[in-house]
């Protein structure tokens, strides 16, 4: 048994957290593989504190570079304190978002540049790249509609339709520029179908 680090990526409302929970159930019940779910920003005590700064609607004056560095800081703590030790102990770790989110949101949509944001993130993750990245491909409007049906928007979610259109384009650009380890699935399909597509990818990677 080997550890495995999977990052789920995609726009707000694309179903990543629902699928993450279902994947954990399947992997543990059917394949007896201990699986830990985590998320970004957050995942550790320090990361969750950074998350509340990032998502608070009290912090509308936050500069784009501050935003990018805080996401990267949360990620650095996450890797060192949580993901890396768990993977070393042969767990499967599934993170709801990882560095491609920063490329799409901060690099592209906020306009900081894909390469610039990749550079600060490479520093943050210290070489710890995912074994697999699954991109949940879903039109940004549909995603936001799903989100606002569930709860009020946070600072990023209320950034406007144009911002989220840019996020979607940003994901496409990021994946084109950095295709390593990325597989794309159609996230407009049913939950069952999306789950099946993700499981197929994981099973193939792990020879399950
Ligand atoms: P998320 O936890 O997916 O939101 P929710 O819990 O509401 O589903 O992420 C919070 C927001 O942070 C989301 O709008 C995407 C954004 N984000 C970035 O802008 N850059 C990043 O690097 C990450 C990880 C998230």
Relevant terms:
208 residues, alpha/beta, 5-stranded parallel sheet, 5 strands, 57% helix, globular, binds thymidine-5'-diphosphate
What percent strand? 5-15%
Give a quick account of the main beta sheet: strands, pairing sense, barrel closure: 5 strands, parallel
Approximate helicity band:
55-70%
| Largest sheet strand order | 2-3-1-4-5
Structural commentary:
The protein is an alpha/beta fold and 208 residues long. It has helices spanning 16-31, 45-55, 64-88, 99-109, 114-125, 140-150, 161-177, 191-206, and strands spanning 4-9, 35-39, 92-96, 132-137, 182-186. Helix 3 (64-88) runs antiparallel to helix 4 (99-109) and helix 3 runs parallel beside helix 5 (114-125). Thymidine-5'-diphosphate binds at residues 12, 39-41, 55, 71, 97, 101-102, 105-106, 154, 156-157.
Record the SSE blueprint:
Layout: E1 4-9, H1 16-31, E2 35-39, H2 45-55, H3 64-88, E3 92-96, H4 99-109, H5 114-125, E4 132-137, H6 140-150, H7 161-177, E5 182-186, H8 191-206
Parallel strand pairs: 1-3, 1-4, 2-3, 4-5
Helix pairs in contact: 1-8, 2-3, 3-4, 3-5, 4-5, 4-7
The protein binds thymidine-5'-diphosphate (TYD).
In short:
The chain is of the alpha/beta class.
